[in-house]
Amino acid sequence: MRIEKVLLGISMCLLLFVEIMPAHHSFTAEYDSAKVRQFIGTVTKIEWTNPHARFYLDVKDERGTVTNWNFELGTPLMLRKLGWKADSLKVGDQVTVEGYLAKDGAKMANARSVTLADGRKVFAGSSADTTSGGKF
User: Fold this and answer.
1) Considering the entire predicted model, what is its pTM?
2) pLDDT of 1-30, one tens digit each?
3) What angle do CA 122, 33, 58 make, to 5 degrees?
4) Which domains does the chain have, with CATH numbers?
């Protein structure tokens, strides 16, 4: 009888975990590795969360129109291993980003590297670079 209660408890925990687990995607499902672009802009928002950290950048095009872009980074743990800190990016910072464009044309990219406001270039933990360990 006791083992049945333990198994029931484990089953309930697993079901709960499945319900709250966020969906995850593969890089190739969402981004185009052949479409790399460089962006220069001002940081407007930072989300230092799992499964991917994100930040948003106001980018001015050649006509002067400003568009807000969404950049996906690696996990916060991976970013720390690559030299990032939670305050490496701050709202208002001017940064340069190299990233892979979204396949669907959304104003979204998977960041490959970021040149921070202090001039340091850091890798972004892109899931496209997993075979190289995030290094170029």
Assistant:
1) 0.73
2) 677 665 555 655 444 444 444 444 566 667
3) 55
4) 25-132 (2.40.50.140)
